């Protein structure tokens, strides 16, 4: 612990605790009002932990403190110690009104001695796996980014511009240029032995019980590992989609885009291959208990398992029916121009035809690498899960 952000409207208490921290070589940023607190989290100054008065600027109500937590979330991944003279009030608060992860907040009484408070903070910093990973990656990623920028600067401006423009392409395919930068950063992480050792120590130090989360937690974890949820206008290989009628009043089917990326960006290739997805419990699949076990072990010849696809608040188990393929073609317009949008990449905003019906495609999520590659290997071969991280135990 090097620096603390202390948010409290009691100047006397601020000074007293600030002196205790300083005597232990820990810097303190003090905030006596919400304006100072907001400025502190907006200017990107580093701090390890937040100590927050639960009745900040209001002796009867925690609304200002909860507002601060909402602003802190997604801005700084830091633990928060709620500092209060009324622990019961905090503990009886409706957790849905506190917009902050519960495992990153701990309440302590203002009667707590400084040594005990410091020990509580250090204990959380040492035991929370996410905080340890954040510290490890935060430092290394910043160093790697700086190295990559120096590497790129070795090219003259004009040459670098040409290279990046070529990668982006005429359709402004920004994800390809991002891949270039991210791959260069990843290379630096791979060759950083100190980083690898530190990461290994963190993961090896996990207690065995942490590998057996509750079912709901497990399904959410699987969803985060296997899929990403972009807000993309471009149709991409590996996208899991919902197909509706033109008016979006009825769902026709779910599917995964199986067209190679190189085809999706070609203006003269206006077809999209979609493999049908059905719910694992779909009666039309007629799966018995043994079939379901084989599907979940990826041992079924015709079905490929997609566990925990998040649609709204629901996590649904799907299977890809490998032999059930649909072709979506860009919808012609009234002037009979066969490919009306041929000058741009295929977009979700376009209209398409499937089996002579006009349809819309809606993005749900995308299959993450390397699991996307695994699915397409299964699609075109009889084997799978070769060299792919194995997370079946989580399913």
Describe what you observe in this structure:
The chain contains 13 helices and 13 strands. The chain is α/β, with parallel strands linked by helices and 395 residues long. The protein has 3 domains: 3-127, Response regulator (Rossmann fold); 153-212, no CATH class; 220-394, no CATH class. A hairpin with a 5-residue loop joins strand 7 and strand 8 (251-257). Helix 2 runs parallel beside helix 3, helix 6 packs across helix 8 and helix 6 (129-153) packs antiparallel against helix 9. The longest helix is centred in the middle third of the chain and has 25 residues, at 129-153. It is globular.
State the gist of this model.
By secondary structure, the protein is of the alpha/beta class. The protein has helices at residues 11-22, 34-42, 63-72, 87-91, 114-127, 129-153, 157-168, 174-190, 193-204, 215-226, 261-264, 289-296, 371-380, and strands at 3-7, 27-31, 49-53, 80-84, 105-109, 227-228, 239-245, 251-257, 271-279, 303-311, 314-330, 352-354, 357-367. The chain is globular, with a radius of gyration of 26 Å.
**Category from helices, strands and their pairing:** alpha/beta
Mean pLDDT: 86
Major sheet: order of its strands? Answer: 7-8-9-11-12-13
> Strand count, sense and closure of the main sheet?
6 strands, antiparallel, barrel
Low-confidence stretches: none
Number of helices: 13
Strand tally, please?
Answer: 13
Helix content: 25-40%
What is the ordering of alpha helices and beta strands?
Answer: EHEHEHEHEHHHHHHEEEHEHEEEEH
Oligomer: single chain
- Spatial extent as radius of gyration: 26 Å
Proportion of residues in β-strands: 15-25%
């Amino acid at each position: 612990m090097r620096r603390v952000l202390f948010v409290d409207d009691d100047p006397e208490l601020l000074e007293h605790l600030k002196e205790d921290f300083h005597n232990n070589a820990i810097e303190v940023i003090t905030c006596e009002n919400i304006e100072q607190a907001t400025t502190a989290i907006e200017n990107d100054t580093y701090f390890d932990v937040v100590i927050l008065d639960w009745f900040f600027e209001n002796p009867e109500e925690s609304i200002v403190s909860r507002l601060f937590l909402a602003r802190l979330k997604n801005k700084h991944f830091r633990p928060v110690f709620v500092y209060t003279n009324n622990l019961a009030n905090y503990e009886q608060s409706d957790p849905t009104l506190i917009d902050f992860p519960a495992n990153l907040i701990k309440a302590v009484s203002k009667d707590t001695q400084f040594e005990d408070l410091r020990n509580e903070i250090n204990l959380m910093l040492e035991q929370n796996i996410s905080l340890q990973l954040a510290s490890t990656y935060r430092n290394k990623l910043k160093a790697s980014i700086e190295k990559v920028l120096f590497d790129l600067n070795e090219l003259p401006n004009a040459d670098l511009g040409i290279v990046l423009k070529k990668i982006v392409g005429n359709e402004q395919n920004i994800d390809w240029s991002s891949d270039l930068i991210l791959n260069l950063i990843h290379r630096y992480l791979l060759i950083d032995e100190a980083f690898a050792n530190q990461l290994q120590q963190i993961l090896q130090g996990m207690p065995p019980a942490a590998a057996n989360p509750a079912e709901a937690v497990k399904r959410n974890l699987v969803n985060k590992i296997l899929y990403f949820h972009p807000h993309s206008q471009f149709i991409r290989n590996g996208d899991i989609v919902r197909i509706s009628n033109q008016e979006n009043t009825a769902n026709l089917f779910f599917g995964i885009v199986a067209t190679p990326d190189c085809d999706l960006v070609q203006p003269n290739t206006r077809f999209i291959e979609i493999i049908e997805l059905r719910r694992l419990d779909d009666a039309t699949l007629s799966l018995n208990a043994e079939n379901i076990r084989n599907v979940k072990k990826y041992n079924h010849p015709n079905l490929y398992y997609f566990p925990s696809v998040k649609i709204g608040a629901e996590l649904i188990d799907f299977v890809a029916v490998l032999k059930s393929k649909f072709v979506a073609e860009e919808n012609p317009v009234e002037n009979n121009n066969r490919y009306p949008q041929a000058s741009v990449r295929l977009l979700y905003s376009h209209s398409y035809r499937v089996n002579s019906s006009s349809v819309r495609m809606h993005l749900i999520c995308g299959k993450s690498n390397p699991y996307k590659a695994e699915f397409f290997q299964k699609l075109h071969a009889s084997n799978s899960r070769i060299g792919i991280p194995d997370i079946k135990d989580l399913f």
